[in-house]
Design brief:
RNA_pol_sigma_r2; Sigma factor; elongated; DUF6596; RNA_pol_sigma70_r2
């Protein structure tokens, strides 16, 4: 962490909590076992509370070492006063010669290499415990991200009671299934990376394009998704798909400043000021993209990263290589034929063959209206009608899209398009 005299100790603690709470949780979960996750959380919370009391007057030269030492001391105190925990640990580490040997084992759990492996194991453990992707995200944010219940509720637009209950269900499932970090082999779970990638991508997308709530972007979720993806690489799980996912996230992250206006309004890709795009992040995206090319398997992350890279290198919207984009979108639809991938392909098709041809393609694929809450279908249809000056027809589709959209930034954008089409329709009738 960079030293900055303008940052208060409280702010430094906040940054470090994000950065290090997951490490401490992984180390202590490995030592105590996941069935005692509540004790792990207590130790981590008490450690940072101690930092809040001490650091304003005595800020340590090595904050991580200070936190790790305090966490270990608090864990030792817990063991000494809690006979149930002590008996559990003696049973777990059955070959101990002396109680003090427990503390040597705990020191080993805080080794950086072991912490990295156990952070990965925590990612996998959450996937073992529940098939619900939202609950997996909650578990990951709570254990590895250092997010509090209220922060998760705010980020995912849920009430705090629901977040707490869903988290407890996952923890309970871990206990009932008897899942421990020692049961999760890094080598064996490489096959489960697809599921972990999916959860991380869902987390990133929730930040990049919030499904509901007043804000379109939630940067803290995007940064957390990138941090978690890097954990996969640090755990020696080299996987080209992980690099492709990181590449995609960096390309998208680079466009953050251009996607939203000063009033929080959505700015479409064609209208974005590309000078606001972060060239350094784009460069990092290409580094990971290059690394992703070493494997033989082509994943949807590879194709989406290729699509994002084309947008990032185009000087403006019109000069984009739309033919190459259509090629990539065709590949993506073949690999992942979802309504969203079909709709994105139609938007690209419009740029090559015009809105009339694209609208015909859209109407020939009525299945794109499913699921019923897919507002994007009506938003795309409204745009295609509007571009052909069919304003009255566009009004109906923008109204349908507006009724289904949940994010306030997108609702404001759709409202603007709706009102403009109403004005244009009335002018055409005069």
């Amino acid at each position: 962490m960079e030293k900055d005299e303008n940052i208060s100790p409280q702010e430094k603690i906040g940054h470090l909590f994000r950065e290090l709470s997951g490490k401490m949780t992984a180390a202590l979960s490995h030592f105590f076992g996941l069935q005692h996750l509540e004790f792990v959380e207590d130790v981590v919370q008490e450690t940072f509370y101690a930092a809040l009391k001490t650091w304003p007057t005595h800020f340590p030269a090595n904050p991580q070492a200070w936190l790790f030492k305090v966490a270990k001391n608090k864990a030792i105190n817990l063991i000494k006063r809690n006979h149930h925990i002590r008996d559990h640990l003696i049973k777990k580490y059955w070959n101990l010669h002396h109680e003090n040997d427990l503390f040597s084992i705990m020191d080993g759990a805080f080794d950086e290499g072991i912490i990295h492996d156990n952070q990965f194991r925590l990612l996998i453990a959450g996937s073992h415990a529940t098939v619900n992707s939202r609950n997996q995200i909650i578990f990951i944010l709570k254990t590895l991200g250092g997010f509090g219940t209220s922060e998760i509720a705010n980020a995912l637009i849920m009430n705090t009671e629901a977040v707490a209950k869903n988290y407890q269900r996952t923890v309970k499932a871990l206990k009932e299934k008897g899942i421990g970090l020692e049961d999760v082999s890094v080598r064996e779970t490489r096959a489960k990376l697809d599921l972990v990638h999916k959860v991380i991508y869902l987390l990133f997308n929730e930040g990049y394009k919030a499904s509901s709530g007043p804000h379109l972007l939630k940067e803290e979720l995007c940064f957390e998704a990138i941090r978690l993806a890097k954990i996969l690489l640090q755990a020696h799980c080299f996987n080209p798909a992980t690099n492709a996912l990181l590449s995609l996230m960096y390309f998208n992250l680079a466009r953050f400043q251009g996607r939203v206006g000063q009033m929080g309004e959505l700015i479409l890709l064609k209208d974005q000021d590309r000078k606001l795009w972060d060239k350094q992040l784009i460069g990092i995206g290409f580094q990971y993209f290059s690394e992703s090319m070493t494997g033989e398997n082509l994943t949807s992350f590879h194709i989406e990263a290729a699509i994002a890279s084309l947008h990032c290198i185009s000087s403006d919207y019109k000069s984009t290589d739309w033919s190459k984009l259509l090629f990539y979108h065709d590949k993506l639809v073949a690999l992942n034929p979802s309504p969203v991938t079909h709709l994105n392909r139609i938007v690209v098709l419009k740029m090559i063959k015009g809105p009339g041809f694209a609208l015909k393609q859209l109407l020939e694929n009525e299945h794109l209206q499913t699921p019923k809450k897919n507002y994007l279908y009506f938003a795309v249809k409204g745009q295609l009608l509007e571009e052909q000056h069919m304003f009255s027809d566009a009004v109906a589709d923008y109204e349908a899209a507006l009724s289904l959209a949940e994010n306030q930034s997108e609702k404001r954008f759709l409202s603007q398009r709706l009102e403009q089409c109403k004005i244009n329709a009335q002018a055409g009738n005069k």
